Amino acid sequence: MSLTDRTGLTKSDIETGDRLAPKFDADGLLPAVTTDADTGEVLMVAYMNAEALEKTLETGEAHYWSRSRGELWHKGATSGQVQIVKELRIDCDQDAVVLRVRPQGDGGCCHVGFRTCFFRKADKDGTLTTDQERL
Amino acid sequence: MSLTDRTGLTKSDIETGDRLAPKFDADGLLPAVTTDADTGEVLMVAYMNAEALEKTLETGEAHYWSRSRGELWHKGATSGQVQIVKELRIDCDQDAVVLRVRPQGDGGCCHVGFRTCFFRKADKDGTLTTDQERL
What we know:
135 residues; PRA-CH (chains A, B); mainly beta; EC 3.5.4.19 (chains A, B); Phosphoribosyl-AMP cyclohydrolase (chains A, B); 12% helix; four-stranded mixed β-sheet; PRib_AMP_CycHydrolase_dom (chains A, B); 32% strand; phosphoribosyl-AMP cyclohydrolase activity (chains A, B); homodimer; Ubiquitin-like (UB roll); two-stranded antiparallel sheet
């Protein structure tokens, strides 16, 4: 068990302390931002519950909570796109994490076939432009 | 108005189309991951409602929805830590955005006094280590 119960912790304990005491939302989730450990690029945003966060720390491979399937999601278990976690970081109020990962398999992470889920940029008028290549 | 109503759009329109048609959650929000446009580093994770997203596109400065204050939040309006948006990207299912920004003022973004909100990394056992300097 690597997570600390926030009950009884002060604001200072949470914001600058040395214990991982994450704040999950009403659904028991927090957002996880997954970045490429080498390039820093944001690959995807997903969600973790306590179990997913603990499994990620224990195994060194990214686990999320699939909101659509309602189950623990070991990323890459079927696609081969396992994410080896080089570093896990948490923010000041401990309600979001950043994973720095090395994607395995074909190096992708997005079900549409791109290397990242953020393959489109938005112009001021709401036009989207795809500026990445499919894998 | 730069946002497109998702009603009537197909999965393909949303996932690979050229219209910004974001999916907001039950609270009318989506997560925004803010990164440094030059280094790629993740600075913060906040939330946007439709108004915040439109204001961000229109003005070129990051606007969020403050969940704690329950109001539109023009980042830096009081702190000077305005974020000039160089690029806004959206993911495949259009329920998360990435901003690439140039932070103004003292170059920080975190209320605790660090350049990024993710100034601590977590070890396997849940120990947090601060590895950034305060501004």
